[in-house]
């Protein structure tokens, strides 16, 4: 396979990892927003303090699971970045491309 074909594959991977990583960031932000919304609802008397606390706890558990998924995605991204470098296709990586958490993201 030519270097150009490998670079095209790397470019597709960069796009896909970017979409996944953005979705994980959006999920995290959404949980933070929901937590505040439930607090506001509790303050407004729309539900009990106990219900707010239980719901926020559930959101935090889900957010933790998403963080675990994110960690695995970053590890896979790091491996993919190394594969690109090993195959001389890392020039397809965006300028200033960095690996977050020591992994392989943007």
Give an overview in words:
- This protein has about 110 residues and is mainly α.
- It has one domain (about 5-100).
- It is about 75% helix and about 0% strand.
- It is built from 2 helices and no strands.
- It has helices at about 5-45, 50-85.
- Helix 1 (about 5-45) packs antiparallel against helix 2 (about 50-85).
Number of strands: 0
Strand content: under 5%
Helix content: over 70%
Q: Would you list the SSEs in sequence order as H and E?
A: HH
Provide the structure class.
Answer: mainly alpha
Oligomerization status of the protein chains? single chain
List unreliable stretches of 5+ residues: 100-106
Give the overall shape, derived from the CA principal axes: rod-shaped
Through-space gap between termini? 26 Å
Mean pLDDT: 88
**Domains (count):** 1
- How many helix segments? 2
Largest sheet: none
Radius of gyration: 19 Å
């Amino acid at each position: 396979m030519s270097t150009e074909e490998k670079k095209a594959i790397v470019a597709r991977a960069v796009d896909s990892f970017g979409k996944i990583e953005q979705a994980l960031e959006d999920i995290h932000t959404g949980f933070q927003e929901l937590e505040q919304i439930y607090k506001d609802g509790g303050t407004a008397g729309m539900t009990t303090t106990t219900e707010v606390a239980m719901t926020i706890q559930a959101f935090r558990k889900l957010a933790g699971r998403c963080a675990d998924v994110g960690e695995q995605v970053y590890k896979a991204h790091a491996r993919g970045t190394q594969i690109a470098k090993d195959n001389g296709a890392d020039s397809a990586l965006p300028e200033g491309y960095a690996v977050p958490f020591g992994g392989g993201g943007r």
